[in-house]
Amino acid sequence: MIRKLYRERVALKWEIIEKETVDEIIFRTTNVRNRLILELMARGGMRIGEVLKLTLSDIQDRKLILRDPKSGKDHEIVFIPQKVADRLRNYANSKCDNPEDWIFPISYEASRVMVTKAGKMVGIRLRPHDLRRHSATFASRSGVPIEIVSKVILTHVNLLMTQRYLGKISDVEAMRWIENL
Predict the structure, then answer these.
(1) What's the CA gap between 21 and 25, in Å, rounded?
(2) In 10 A of CB 53, how many CB atoms?
(3) Is the residue at 28 inside a domain?
(4) What counts of helices (H) and strands (E) characterise the chain?
(5) What residues make up the domain containing 22?
(6) Which of 14, 37, 12 lies closest to 104 in space, CA to CA?
(7) Does any domain span residue 36?
(8) What DSSP letter does each residue of 83-131 carry, written as one string?
(9) Residue 145, helix vs strand vs coil
(10) What is the sign, positive or negative, of the torsion defined by CA atoms of 173, 154, 86, 115?
(11) What is the pLDDT of residue 181?
(12) How far is residue 156's CA from residue 41's CA, in Å, rounded to a whole number?
């Protein structure tokens, strides 16, 4: 028991999915609802639980209001690309009768199964949180400051949590960045 308490913790390493693979997963998904769910996680950095709790009243142009977020705050704001926002608004208006209706009235387990099947279409093992990690890593590698990735995209309280999300940089990618300097 004592050995277990004082053993050195091993940092978790996640395989980061490349942008082309995520794009292929999204474009191969023909069901509009499923495609929107995937896009919100991959492009907006949202958790699957946050996506499933969205209501029609939470959509405000390119901003989404997250009620009762994981951080414990009253609400948080997520920014999404304009094209995704337009498709989401159109879909929500066609599916929701009341402003407080859920946009995606499916269970957490059903959404996990959908994400897993989407990954199998391109031959990878995909979990919902992989898309959130992809969003953070892609933003970071595109030059977005880590503070923005942490506070705005992932809505983390501190940078240490964000650093755990970011994928390991390959030698090829490191050389490419050095060449850019």
Answers:
(1) 6
(2) 17
(3) yes
(4) 10, 3
(5) 14-173
(6) 37
(7) yes
(8) HHHHHHHHHHHHH-SSTTSBSS---HHHHHHHHHHHHHHTTS---HHHH
(9) coil
(10) positive
(11) 59
(12) 15
How many domains, the chain?
1
Q: pTM (2 decimals)?
A: 0.82
**Ranges under pLDDT 70 in the chain:** 9-14, 165, 167-174, 176-177, 180-181
Query: Which contacts qualify for 69-73: CB closer than 8 Å, 24 or more apart?
Result: 69/155, 71/155, 71/157
Evaluate whether residue 60 is within a structural domain.
yes
The count of residues in the chain is 181
The pair of structure tokens assigned to 82 is 């304009």
pLDDT at 169: 65
Give the CATH number for residue 51.
Answer: 1.10.443.10
**105 lies in some domain:** yes
Q: By the 8 A CB rule, do 80 and 71 touch?
A: no
